[in-house]
Amino acid sequence: MISISLVVFLPLLGAILLGLIPGEKLQQLRYGSLLVTVATMLASIALFLKFDSNTFHFQMTEFLPWMKSAGINYRMGVDGISIWLILLTTFLTVISTWFSFYVKERVKAYMICILVLETAMLGVFTSLDMILFYSFFEASLVPMWLLISIWGGANRKYAGLKFFLYTFAGSIFMLLGIIVMAWLNQKVTGAWSFDLVEIQSNVANGKLWASSMAIQPFIFWAFALAFLVKCPAFPFHTWLPDAHVEAPTAGSVILAGVLLKMGTYGFLRFVLPLFPDSLRDNTLPLMIIAVVGILYGAIVAAVQPDVKKLVAYSSVSHMGFVLLGIFSLSQMGMMGGAMQQLNHGISTGALFLLIGLIYERRHTRNFSDFGGLKAQMPIYSAIFLIVMLSSVGLPGLNGFVGEFLALFGSFQSGWVGLYGMTYWLPALAGVGVILSAVYLLWMFQKVFYGPNVNPENQLLKDIKPWEIAMTGTLVVMIFVGGIFPNIFLKPMEKAITATRMMATYPAGQRPVWSNKSHEIDATGALTSNGTIVAPASPYPTFELAKNANENGPALSTEIKAPVASANPRRRGGR
Amino acid sequence: METGVPLGGYLAVGLMMFIVGVIGVVIRRNPIVIFMCIELMLNAVNLTLLAFAKYGPVNQGADPTQTAMAGQMMVIFVMAVAAAEVAVGLGIIMAIYRLRHNIDVDEMSVLRG
Amino acid sequence: MEATKNLIWLVLFLPLVGSLIQALLGGRIVKQLGPQKGKWLMGLLAVAPIAISFVIGAFITLQLTNAEPADRHTVVTLFNWIDFTSIRIPFETVIDPLSMTMVLIITGIGALIHLYATGYMAEEKEYTRFFTYLNLFVAAMLILVLGNNLAMLFVGWEGVGVCSYLLIGFWYKDIANAKAANKAFIVNRIGDLGLTLGIFLLVTLMLTSKAGHVGSDNRWLSYDVLLSLDPSLTGAAQALGNNPGVAFAIAMLFFVGACGKSAQFPLYIWLPDAMAGPTPVSALIHAATMVTSGVFLLNRMNLLFQMSPAASAIVAIVGAFTAVFAALIAFGQMDIKKVLAYSTVSQLGLMFVGCGSGYFWAGMFHVTTHAFFKALLFLGSGAVIHAMAHNQDMRNYGGLFKYIKITSICMIIGWLTISGVWPMSGWFSKGAIIDGAIAQPYSVYGEANLGQLAGYIGLVGAFLTAIYMTRMTYLTFFNKEERWRLIEPHHQAHETHEHAHHEAHDHGPDEHGFFLTEAPPEEHAHHHELDREHTPREVPISMWVPLVVLAACSLFAGIIMNRATEIPGVSEHQHVSAFQNWLYPQGLSQWTRLPEVPHEAPFGLSGHWFMVAISVAAVAGGLLGGILWYRQIHKNRLPVNEGWDTGGWNPWRRRAMNQFGYDSAMVSSAVEGGDQLATALWKKIDVGVIDRTVNGLGRFAGGIGKVFAFFQGGYVRGYALMMLAGVALLLGYIAFKMKEREAPPMEHVEISRRVASL
Fold first, then answer.
1. pLDDT for the residue numbered B61
2. Residues of C at the B interface (Cβ-Cβ below 8 Å)?
3. Is some CB atom of chain C closer than 8 A to the CB atom of B92?
4. B43-60 pLDDT, tens per residue?
5. Selection from C326, C325, C339, C321 nearest residue C282 by Cα
């Protein structure tokens, strides 16, 4: 009954139906679109309930012939990585649609934009055909661009264009890469196909790159560039602050919560499985990019005069942790990166939402206009505090788990020198955790602490019950993610492990999506019909041992005690 | 070979019609007239197609009647497209006239780069 | 033990539940019952969970003492917090002497301070918010000490940090408090980074050393796996022993973490500012419990420090330096709470001396006694502040003994205890540290016995402590001059207050109902003034009862905990301190036993009596010297706004007051330097380089477009002509090509083929 296509196209269907409602009937439009997004969320939850977390294979796959002769088909499927992003998308869309009740101009077009955007985002996370993926990837730009440049702030035209061109320019290279991948695949199999599963199987058995290893780095960087721009990583990030500042609140929530994840999702879904060799050659530069992003975003965030801009730069910093975790190529780091994606979506989304609430009241976001709001709006400030602390990465709240695991994993990889990584980079990235406290606490202090001297603020009421409910859901998610992170980690474990093995294991030992007999067993080994194909390697030390062709760092059996044991007696007290 | 008007005759008439159409499109400023000239060009092409359908050499191994039908089919297509084009184009011209009370094509240069 | 071990969850979750009750229901209940009854009920609901936790904790501890020393270690698991192939972090607690000692301190003193706070904060409007944070703090602190893995320790570690942040900034309307809160959190975060990296490095080292252990027990962060209490495992000791450099790095990183939380030298700067919080907070968090978690960490990770003598030596020296440095600063403080804050820093330094010299139990012993007497001193100072109408400047005190007898007597006990007078508990715990440090052969770096040096420096610190505590006591309680009578009444403060918001204000149409229609009534906090008409009054019973209990603990805890007990299983019947025997029973782990090297004492005294002699000299010298000195100085009347110590000492006192310029140098360089760096990065790199490059690319593309725009004249006929020309060119080209090939007259099939082949 429930299928991926239903989830993906339900919002589009809703958008079409919404088109039939006259534009003046604001309430019907608002509740109608909310209804559609809630239905989509329920459908995605049903999808999740049907999801089997014991396999890394794509599930609930769908196939429809589309352009058969070119090898382009409609293929959909979910695995442990994408299922959470689907849930995140549908959840955040509900929240942002709910918030969008505040929109007063061109409500109909606005709601249609959001719904179309939701379909595009869900399509990105579910497509298994590379052209289909690319279509959704680019399709998501248009509604977002409209959201920014129609309902945005003062400088919206510039920001919208910048957003569109930046990301579009990045992904053009990816299209080129996609075509080359299909061509290479055609050389192996004899038929054109853009099917990710098929191409991956030829990468996994080593045939695809066997004769064309020289061009792998170029295609790798073509893909990586597209996703780095989307993330955004350091030198390609300048579209993000502008886009966030100008975008309407719902746009910011979706932009930070979901659109940025397309970049990191792209790395997990395409770059790791398809370009293992180039990836391993380039982990160090990629890690440097991630760490520079973490530090740079955090430092620059600390001097922003605008709350939204501060949070935008903090996104650059936080997404750096996702990248760091993924590029660590250790299970722990990648789990952390994947977890951090969700956490960032929820906590940064919540921050933008909260900023939107105050913006609707005061029509300003400058720090200089605020101060002392804690007494004025106690509930709002309490919720803001929790969300802020989650973003700071306080243990017990969701932000911690991802950051901790990502740092831990990359530190381990760096310590053993996996693929030329170094542990200094994660150690430096740890400074980003301190800096996140610096700018976020500063923000909280500027807005909520001190005397309430601005007469404009002295009559502010606390937020309303429905707003408490809306932000409270996010707060609940923050606590759930922090206290029971296993709910999120378990379903993605097999998929992450398999993705990691696709990137780090030699050809022939990599898991293959198209080979249904492949499974990851409880110890993390790759089995085929119960026999072990590739051994487990949960720790980076395994690769080290493998590469050095020895059994890890030598262990001496002798214990060197620091103190010469002269007298076994212990000195007592008086 | 059948007798009657030779292939060259059809082609000559078609060429003349086409040239008249082209000149009309280039020099006239009234869009209605431009449209008529476009129609002229399309019909010149139609004429040529029909002439070739009548006189054209037959594909090896293909059914001669079908080959002949191909040219005539194209003509039907062109006519259908022309009709659609006129419908849309006249609509646009009407809309522009309502907006600007002037349909001189030289006045409409907003697409200038 | 098995039957009662699950009770530990009650200990852990009761304060959490209490916090939730305060947060979610508190405001409503107070509103419903009225401030009087409501606050009484909420106060009860705040104290009760902590008190019950204490009772259960005491019960579990009793059970623990009944067990054999080797069996005093139980791990209780609730659920898996993080669990996948490469790591499993359960939510688990460890019940052992170390954790239960801390639990008793936290809940016991916590309950007393909660009780005290119900009186101290009685006039506070946001009463329940205070207890929300305070209960939450106790819960976080319990997680810190009870957690059986480093991740849970870190949860508690940051949890107490955030509670401390919230409580320091409790009176947030004063921006200085908010800044102090930020400073505390950020400086703590620096330490937390050290701790995080230490955890990473330690676990990574274990993983690289235990590569063969894959899949056995992946609870890599749990103490029982990580530190391999099971001697049959090739354990941490081996891995650390094989990699002395890494062991040193790990130990130093953990020490950085401990420095942040326990306010040791480079990172101590947040603690004095943290006195901006309400006094019960200073007593509970910034004296008795949270700041000692660094010492707890060192005890928990004692293996690390034992495997790295160099790191231990650094710990001892840093501790000793901090002890003296903070003691010197304390001389220059005017604020009674600041004096106590620096004395806390100083005492913590002493605890680090103990741990750095390998006498971990002595460090913990001092944690325990310090918790008693420092909580007592802080609560007593709170009582004084309460009596003095929230005036914290000692220059305005004097002669209070006459007016607040109970508080004064308790404070005097605290003063004598912290100075280390026999038989107060401070004598025993300080003695154990200094005694051990001077005797030990352990923290030796090269030829220099740094641990011993640290012991002697610590002795100087103890001497200084006796003097400045005398100063504080003398200025507050003694001296005939009642300077508070000189305070100018300042009741006109409220009248000059601007009521700017009462002016009519236009918000425009407020369709959403975002704004109040009229300004909320202004809250006038009740201040009772103190001047020559009003005399200080004794505090209410809820405030002095904790004082008396703590004073009793300060008096007797030392004797009880330090009583000699036999070492089980040792035939010589050697006696050790009961507390040591409880924490680190002999014969359990070889890594927690230090050899004693008899050291040569001067003057022909045996080691023990030499120690007694120098300790007595330090304490007695400090006390007597202080009393005589301050009596002498205070013969003359004090200028209210200046200071007391006129003459040659004054510039030094001022320098001490400003922490010898250290704090301001650190803060201003960090804040201003950071600001400049960040602004430069933003303006130069983001806007200057990257955006300019991107916009430049855009303009470049636009320029190319301009060239081609020439052909887009906008005239239909132009386009038509161009199309014609294009078609003509194309046809001409085809014709030319065909001619070139000298083709015979063609079939149309041939034409199309040739066209296609062009």
1. 59
2. 705-706, 708-717, 720-721, 724, 747-749
3. no
4. 999 999 888 877 765 555
5. C339
